[in-house]
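Assess this one:

_____
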Amino acid sequence: MRLVRRVAEFGSLDGITLFAVSKTNDKTKKGNIMNAKPDSTIKAIVLVHGGFVDGSGWEEVYKILKRDGYTVSIVQNPTISLADDVAVTKRVLAAQSGRAVLVGHSYGGAVITEAGNDPKVAGLVYIAAFAPDKGESVSSLIKDPPPGAPVPPILPPVDGYLFLDKAKFPASFAADVDAEKAAFMADSQVPWGIEALSGTISEPAWKTKPSWYLVATEDKMIPPPAQRFMSKRAGSTVVEVAGSHAIYVSQPNAVAKLIENAAKGS
């Protein structure tokens, strides 16, 4: 029995209505292009990381997917500008022997929303990620958060780059990650370019490609209501998992399962 969602207005984010979501059972099946199934033989997965981190955070997800027979590529996008990150992602896609499922975490969701228009992309998977619409950017989506929403501990920019407060990083970004690993993530942050946050989407791939979305319900970086809004707008197949923004690190099995479901078109 298919799950559909009843929505109630939650608040607003830079003029965008946010929704609190409850599930009800229904047999109704969406009939639009976003829910078309990708090629069932897809075995290539491309993973795109978000801001403040690098591709090494995907290691456990990578291991699970490789064990299950998938070819996995990890994009080391520099997070200096959206245009550069899209170009780097497209180079990795070009190296694939066939069509691939493109996966993005956090800011990586903006990257795959633009890069996903590449003909080699069969489907998109968002992991606690931004899924901007045409003309939107990460900056526009995070401007003016609703009252009561957690505020990420982003420090003032230095030379055009952003960092998170190291002392507050574990609680905000990786609350369910092993303390030692979370501390390492805080100390090994990759500078996030302001230009990357302000890069706008020319045409969102989720309008023409099927998508899946994992909502991290304990996320302190991207409010879960915002994740629900973006996933609903994209027409994504949604799962919700209790976990932090770094859910791809803390719960790799749940993340890998959704990715494999996308690869199978289910």
